[in-house]
Amino acid sequence: MPTEYFEQRERALLGPRYEQLYAAPQEAAERGIDSTCLEGLDMAKMDECLGLAEKGLRTVCAVSLGYRLPDDSNAARPKSRLPMDEVVTVF
Question: What pLDDT score does 24 carry?
Fold first, then answer.
């Protein structure tokens, strides 16, 4: 079977897991923990660094979690955001 078939099937099977992954930042924020979903990672390298293959596991998604420093200068900087009407379309 073509590789595309397996890639599409894997994405479909991972769908519910991604929903949970995207809920993680909200859950973390409610507990005072900063987080972000990580994309564009070299998953094979992550597997290698964490020794996952030996355990029969592999990386499918990643989230970074942590606490900001009290004197984090980035937290006080103004944020650059597009106007809502340029980002959201209401039907």
Answer: 81
